[in-house]
Target: Guanylate kinase
Amino acid sequence: MGLLIVLSGPAGVGKGTVCTALRERMPELVYSVSATTRQPRQGEVDGINYFFKTRAQFQEMIAHDALLEYAEYVGNYYGTPRDFVKETLASGKDVILEIEVQGALKVKEKFPEAIFVFLLPPSLEELKQRITGRGTETMETINTRMNVAVEEMSLLQHYDYAVMNDEIDAACDRIRSIVIAEHCRRERFVPYVTGMKDAIEKA
Amino acid sequence: MGLLIVLSGPAGVGKGTVCTALRERMPELVYSVSATTRQPRQGEVDGINYFFKTRAQFQEMIAHDALLEYAEYVGNYYGTPRDFVKETLASGKDVILEIEVQGALKVKEKFPEAIFVFLLPPSLEELKQRITGRGTETMETINTRMNVAVEEMSLLQHYDYAVMNDEIDAACDRIRSIVIAEHCRRERFVPYVTGMKDAIEKA
Model:
């Protein structure tokens, strides 16, 4: 069985950037594909970028508990199809799911055996800089976003690991290490050792 | 606080070889120095290769619970001084301790917060080949050793991680990943996040 790795963290911490870098560094990971009711953009391919669904189809998925989590943004649904994740894991591959903190908590309810990784900013100053972005926001907006981000950081308690996003290579190396270490958990090797004992007793 | 990593596994699995390779690949780890009552050999330095002790000194260490574990082999005591480990961890450095399985279980009693890593042979055939060694052993000796090794493998249940020693680079990379992942455990970052919350609330 593969592992489901849920990568989350506060708004502005750089989840997307880290995930894009991970795609290059860990091509063996399968990236979870979201379902959405929004229209495909130029070049987007169904089943690769998103699973494109009608509103009726999406609501049927909700009714059949076919989503690990979902949310509605500006009139469109977005969600994580359970079957895609389950089937990929059953094929022995690891799946990574990049998601905001509220979605991650919903995934935890339905899939507690996943590995929950929380991305942290290296400092408040750095977070503020990332949230400020192009400098077009008012002080009030920036302060509100900072408060939200720090509030979201309290959700760290529901996660297994924290990864400091101080430097992209270091952050990716930490995530890669977490995946390798989780594959080394003792429980995964009990059948292997039992098999060896049986073989030598029969010999 | 640094982490204590206990590397163990059945006789013949290649603990020493992996540990020697790790010294090159992870020079940031501090290797635990054993205390012993045996005579120093040519070139061995007190405090580097071993802490050389008289029998009376060693017995005093036992009486004062100054050893994480100890054992007697062919008339000499060998043990792991608790102070060296504790002081190195307190300085923020990780300590690695390579030890046979019985010693590892004793360390676990006195230091349950250590990370216990079990080295596994890639197959029974490979283990037999390593145990057979130079080919000077009788079939009976080899069979006894195989039975002991497989019995020792049942102790895997007391460990946190299992590392397959199929290839030295891969085994070292797994151990390195375990150390990095353990440093990413959520609990270690709670003070960091609490500090950020306090700072933004004061601002």
Remarks:
- The helical segments of chain B are 15-25, 55-63, 82-90, 101-110, 124-132, 139-153, 168-183, 190-202.
- Chain B has two domains: 1-29+94-203, 33-93.
- The CA atoms of residues 18 and 168 of chain B lie 6 Å apart.
